[in-house]
Amino acid sequence: MESQTHNLETTLKTLDLFGKLKPEKRVEIIKPKVKRNETLDLIVEKYKEGLENYGLYIEGNLKIKISKGEFDYYYIAKSSALSKISSNNITEFSLLLGEHENKKHFEWFTGLYLSALINSSKDKDFKIFTNYLSKTIHEIGYKNTKNIDVNGNVGVAVGWYMKDGEITINRNAGAFVGWDMKDGEITINGNVGDEVGSGMKDGKIHLNGEYKRLSDEIYGGNIYHKGKLIVENGRKL
Question: For a surface tag, which of 46, 165, 220, 233 has the fewest beta carbons within 10 Å of its beta carbon?
């Protein structure tokens, strides 16, 4: 166990070096090495099952009847085994995602799966690594209530339906940051796409890089650009 912990800490320290580089600087991608165990195997098994069925769900061929918008939690939140997953387990899983990024629907299902794992865990603080991936993961922090730190780029809809907690993205993010967020705090340390704060009800968004456009449908909350308040209680300044 001590050796396994040491190997993970060494991997994280190596990947952390990439997080300190500017988003535009190109570096050689190093695939992290993580020692597999029974818990990780369970997470991966459910992930692969969910990814396959997500494709059937999107195509309308899934035989199991699931309400619209609840697919991501069907295989996760309702599983007592996965509800006991620790923060460390989820970090390790994020380091294995490179093995699956060429699969169909990877970008869309993975963020939902990670979000549900995080919300179901008993822990509060989580660290996710995406900076070794060639593809971006969408919808990180869906229905979030925890503290998530992402080392790398992410795709669209960071903090979708976010309820509480904090999300920090240490590189770039796509469009719709804070989409329909109800509360909590999002910080993007790189650049973001357009429609920032779309449907936002409350909470705070900190943009420390450049952004393309604020949404015209911001109903509440504050947005800051490089420390300056640009949206107050839903009103653009």
Answer: 233
The order of strands in the sheet holding 204-207 is 125-129, 147-151, 166-169, 185-188, 204-207, 222-225, 228-232, 235-236
Question: Does the pLDDT at position 20 exceed 70?
Answer: no
20: CB partners within 8 A, 6+ apart:
none
The structure tokens listed for 74 are: 């069907």
Nearest to 23 by CA among 135, 170, 134: 170
Residue with tokens 């629907």: 105
Task: Report the C-alpha gap between 10 and 159 in whole angstroms.
Answer: 29
Report how far residue 33's alpha carbon sits from residue 219's, in angstroms, rounded to the nearest whole number.
44
Task: Give CB contacts under 8 A, 24+ apart, made by 214-217.
Answer: 215/176
Cβ–Cβ under 8 Å, residues 133 and 97: yes
Q: Could you report the per-residue pLDDT of 120-135, keeping only the tens digit for each?
A: 889 999 999 999 999 9
Widest distance between CA atoms in the chain? 54
228-232 and 222-225 strand pairing: antiparallel
pTM beyond 0.90, yes or no: no
Any idea where the domains of the chain sit in the sequence?
1-15+30-124, 138-237
| Average of per-residue pLDDT across 195-209 | 97
Average pLDDT, the chain: 83
Please identify which residue in the block is written with the tokens 């369970």. 42
